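Re: the 241-residue chain
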Amino acid sequence: MPSEMNREKPLRLALIGMSGTGKTFWAKKLVDTGIPAVFCDDQIERRLAPRLAPGNYAGINGVAAWMGWPDSKTYAEREAEYLAEEIHVLDEVLQRLEKRPHDSLVLDTTGSVIYTGNHLLLRLRRQMTIVYLAASAAEQQLLIERYLNDPKPVLWRGAFQPKHEETPRETVARCYPALIEARRRSYEALAHCVLQVADLRATSSENTFNANRFLERIRAQTTRRLRSETKKRKGTEGKED
């Protein structure tokens, strides 16, 4: 499906970004308007359930506790298991969309969707309009504090690099900004549309800013992008002639 949206086409949005940027909040807002959604965190937890049950782990915080801190002995193995299940979930969603081209869907992805591999991400980009919810520098500090105080599953992918005599919390505080920056570049490269979280939070407090206004912002931005790309393409063709 092309990145542009109009009312004659199915609405297919994939929300991407770091944990805590509002992906689930806006997905639920869109569900309230009657658009179906898949919440990847829930589906991954469901697939991990047999491994979570022996330790009585449940919910997203339970998944984070099962994975452990990135310096734990079992972390690398469980990080790989989590990613394998995430890949399976995303593949299932894409197969469904490929077989049913008229279905609408909102996909609430995890922050680690960018690690699922280029093949899946290219399929995702073909099937859905990808919306990156981008955090400001000030909000990134809040994300770090939130992870330290209320951990969610995070795939570090080698970005956790302890120094001598450094506590795990100190390593997280030092390395998390680098993880955010690396992901930011990947999110921006993948997305059709970028919405600033600070702007959304400021306006979502207004009673008039709802799911429809959220969609209007996406439509406006993707339309501008399409026009810009069309203009550039015509300019290139003109030079070749």
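The longest strand covers residues 129-134.
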